[in-house]
Amino acid sequence: SFSSKTSTSTFPATLTYTLDQDYTYVKFSIDDGNVGMVFECGIAQTITFANPGDQELPTGTVSLTATSDSGLTVSLASSTTTVCTVSGTTLTLKTEGTCTITASQAGSGDYLAADDVVRSFTVSKASRTITFANPGSKALSVGSFTASSSADSGLTVSLASSTGSVCSVTGFTVGLLATGTCTLIASQAGNSKYDAATNVERSFSITASSGGGGGGGGGAPPPAPAAPAPTATGTTTTAVLTWTPDSDREKYVSSGSGVEISAEALAPTGGKRAVDDGDAFTLVDGDDIELDIKGIADDSTLTVSFTFTDPDRPECAIKSQEIEVGSGTTLTESSISFDPADQCLGEWTMTLEGQTSSSTAFEFTTPIALAAKQLVTETLDAKGSYFFEGRSDAFHSESPAN
Asked: Which domain holds residue 322?
């Protein structure tokens, strides 16, 4: 409640006001001429809004809960609408990134506006796995069979043969071409909601005989003892090609077995690292190695691995990285990050393994010298002016007598 002397010709004038119990005196000001007074009174309120935590895109929607101790309805809004949107209390996940939600309450006749509560969390693709059972040994006389593989994402799995002279794959039909070892690779490239699944590789033998019993009468004689697997038929030849620097010493180039390949080392700033006099890339931690490869098989998987010179340093191991190659036979500018542990300076070897369009396997190797860790610096503009703006409010928890 409020009462005052509202009209007077005598100055100074006295204004009298009374605040009800449990109200909070929030702001008081008076102008330079001492002829006006402004004050605001109301009950303070606080919003409770728990962070929903990191989310995966396949979840789709999430129910949010935000309340105020005033009992008034809290409004929710997204400030990152490309990543997530809000309608009422329903959060919709749209793409990868950081989602930021603001809870607000504007107040009422009795309650002051509450301080906004902001919550941020990560929205990411989901990781899934492939199930692919080994089909087991097959007789060449079977001709073909249907393999089975699935991903727990529900997305379609692709099947390919890495031993094209021994077995072929069309869809999920595996054709048996020759005796030897058939290796099948199940892959799933992911989509806008799921990361690519880790490839699953299965190998099995193709034998010259079914090995089954005869049945009765004039059946075939029992099979002879198994002979060692032939080496001239049904095997894959691996060509090991050594990389050489080009004339400008900015990249490695090589060709053979139907493959043309080049590799450049790029610094975080975008500049190129030169090949040193020891015919090795001299890199720093955080550099990218950019590959350009032609002549490989469609739907192939290339494996890039880094090996530290000292095998007794397990802390220097780097997990192999796989590159999926879709339709077409050219992989252009695929960047592979080189990021070893801090203490692993010294000599490294990079190995790239793959398969040509003629089903010939290839392996490239190149030396790397890790010269130093990457040092990142930032320079501030000394001419800039920076200001901080604040506000001072007075608070009173008791009701004055007058």
From this structure: 238-372
Q: Pairing state of beta strands 144-146 and 173-176?
A: antiparallel
Both tokens of residue 307? Answer: 């090996």
91 forms bridges with which residues in the sheet? Answer: 62, 86
Q: What is the pTM of this model?
A: 0.40
For 342-362, letters b (16+ CB in 10 Å) and e give eebbeebebebbbbbbebbbb
d(CA 99, CA 263): 37
pLDDT tens for each residue of 94-113: 999 999 999 999 988 888 89
The pair of structure tokens assigned to 238 is 């691996």
Q: Does residue 135 belong to any structural domain of this protein?
A: yes
Give the count of beta carbons closer than 10 Å to the beta carbon of residue 143. 11
Cis peptide before 228 (omega within 30 of 0): no
Contact (CB, 8 A) for 209 and 138: no
- Please choose, from the candidates 115, 129, 119, the residue with its C-alpha nearest in 3D space to the C-alpha of residue 54: 119
Q: In this structure, what CATH number is given to the domain that contains residue 107?
A: 2.60.40.1080
CA dist 283 and 238 (Å) reads: 29
- pLDDT tens, position by position, 220-257: 444 444 434 333 333 445 666 666 777 777 777 777 76
Residues 134 and 120 both lie in one domain = no
Q: Which residue among 90, 124, 158 closes a domain? A: 124
